[in-house]
Amino acid sequence: MLQTLPKVWLTYGAISALLMILLAILLSTHKKFSFSFYRIITMDLVLNLFCWINTWPNRMLFREDGVEYILPIYENFNVALYISYYIMNVFLHIQSFSSITVCIHRLSTAIYENSNMFWSKYFLLVYLIILVYSFLATQLLNLNKVEFDYQLRAFRPTLLTEEQRLENRLYLRFFIAGYLLVIIFIGSFTLYKVRKRLSNESSQHKSLLRKMSQITIAHTCIYALLLFWQIASPFLVYNNSVNVLMTVSDMITFSMAYILLIFDGNVRSAIRDKIPFTIMIRGRVSDFQSTHNDSSRVIVM
User: Fold this and answer.
1) What is the DSSP string of 179-230?
2) At residue 53, does pLDDT exceed 70?
3) What angle do CA 274, 278, 282 make, to 5 degrees?
4) What is the mean pLDDT of residues 198-222?
5) Where do transmembrane segments lie in this chain (predicted)?
């Protein structure tokens, strides 16, 4: 039986995942979202959705209420748990570089006139390079294997040597701090270039540039939470550290969907247009108004 925390994860996660799927479909098909910025955001949404799905074996592995769900996988297809754990570490780099790509896109649109054409043509290639890099970077990490203690009825990670643990701490701090510094630098430089360019743009283009900047800045700030977790993790018990990691990971994973809802009016209006319940209500209101107008004509006659 699941305890409270996994139920909370599952509840807000399922709602957020459905929202991400809806947004990915809208951004890919709706005519309002033809700008290349939305191609980058769509890729970010899709990759983060897969990231969230992949976290579930790892977030349940060391919980008492997760044994009954994970043990059959361990006994019948043990390699699946290792692959999931490996991919979870790959996603550290994918999420980081996806955030950096959003910033780079924002910067390039502030500097180059034809950047939209470039990103529309090569965004898939950019993300393919990110995937290859992320898998290669993960090779540098010392990964624990997992064993099940049948007497204690609990999973236990195999112990790493002190040298391996030190290497892992340096690895995580180096990459997370490096990614964050790159994002902060590119974000700051982007704001400077955007302010210079805004004065020469039409009001409609100004609105698009501001919207892209707000989305980029908000996403960057939320990503900083991952660095704060890394700073705090040595002071937490391992199980608590995993719980904090998964919660922070969820905040980063789902953040883009809610940032779009907050800052992008086109996204909100597109969702209102596509939700059947809203359309049904609008149809009933229109029918009522039409009937009311017809009645008014009859009375006037």
Assistant:
1) HHHHHHHHHHHHHHHHHHHHTTS-HHHHHHHHHHHHHHHHHHHHHHHHHHHH
2) yes
3) 115
4) 67
5) 12-29, 36-55, 79-102, 122-141, 170-192, 213-232, 244-263
Q: What CATH number is given to the structural domain containing 241?
A: 1.20.1070.10
Contact criterion met (CB below 8 Å) for 103 and 220: yes
Residue 156 predicted with pLDDT over 50? yes
Q: 286 lies in a domain?
A: no
Work out the average pLDDT over 95-106. Answer: 88
* Rounded mean pLDDT, 68-90: 92
Question: Rounded to two decimals, what is the model's pTM?
Answer: 0.82
| 273-276 LR contacts (CB < 8 Å, sep 24+) | 274/22, 274/26
CA angle 203, 208, 209 (to 5 degrees): 95
Q: Compute the distance between CA of residue 175 and CA of residue 99 in angstroms, rounded to an integer.
A: 14
Q: Which domain holds residue 140?
A: 9-269
Give the pLDDT mean for 159-169.
Answer: 91
Cβ-contact 123, 40 below 8 angstroms: yes
Query: With bands split at pLDDT 50, 70 and 90, how would you rate the model's confidence at 86?
Result: very high
User: Tokens 């955001």 appear where?
Assistant: 41
Domain annotation covers residue 298: no
Give the DSSP H or E segment for 147. strand 146-149
**Bridge partners of residue 95, in order along the sequence:** none
Residues 249 and 225: beta-carbon distance below 8 Å: no
Give yes or no for a contact between 146 and 67, defined as CB atoms under 8 angstroms apart.
Answer: no
Q: What is the pLDDT of residues 213-232, one digit of tens each?
A: 777 777 777 776 666 666 66
Number of folded domains in the chain?
A: 1
* 278 located within any domain: no
- 283 falls within a domain: no
Query: Hey, how many other C-beta atoms are within 10 angstroms of the C-beta on 256?
Result: 23
Instruction: Name the one residue in this structure whose structure tokens are 């108004």.
Output: 289
Q: How many CA atoms lie within 13 A of 162 on its CB side?
A: 0
